[in-house]
Task: structure prediction
Amino acid sequence: MSLSTKAMKASLSISSWLPFKKDMAVTKKAHIDFQASSNSGQFNKRLVDKAGTDGIKKVVNAARTYHYRMTLPWDDGGYRLLPSKLYLEYTQEMRRLKTEFNVSVAQFINDYPNLKLKAQQSLGTMFNLNEYPSVMDIREKFGFEIDIIPVETAGDFRAELSQQEKDKIKASIEKKSSERQANAMGDLWNRLYTCVSKMAEKLNDENATFRDSLVGNVIGLVDLLPDMNITDDADLAALTEEVRNQLCNVTAAELRSNKVVRKDIGSAAQSLVDAMDTMSGYMKAAA
Result:
């Protein structure tokens, strides 16, 4: 099966109003008061209280984290590769996050007049009403869009060209697609390597502390990898199952309370890291 039947390209575009403004007067005064050069720094004031935009920032961070988790690197145009098996899950979660984003923005817009009043009190003489967009203008500064398009193939051009020119273009498209596909798979290998090596490092250090996410991240990754293995890489599939069988049948609480279990899982994790270090192919591309 061609890549175009197993994956598609997805882009995430989020825009927000940044509630910061460089204050030239305060910056200049600081340079004079501290006898500092003009390029030594600048003062950026916060136009509204941090709590006013925290809800929006939280959703934005969650959306970007989820987008990168569910997709693979592809091109330089902002698109990433979304495996077809994850399309439904991805679009459902993104719709939920977009709704949450819009709700948070609406709440911010509703609070905006009060936030300006509070800023006037907190900023004192630094407050400048002209630095605040109108309610109508500030709403336009927020956006949350997902774009999903097919993966281009070597036959996706329609110009009237000679056969020789067509062959050159097809060869170029196929070469770029192959390179991007290898890079995408390398990203998967790298995710697995990073996750397992972090577990090995933590568990083999008797003085290290760790959160429940140390195990949760490994479990989450091995659950996701089979659907992201767009080339059906047998080595990656086998290694994923090895990680699942050896590292995922234990809780973080057990690892903290049982030194024997911690040592065994730590040794198993290190053995898997050592095995990945010796593997060829995509692992070398990821490195």
Summary: DSSP finds eleven helices and six strands in the chain. The CA atoms of residues 74 and 181 lie 7 Å apart. The first strand starts at residue 7 and ends at 15. The two ends are 28 Å apart (CA to CA).
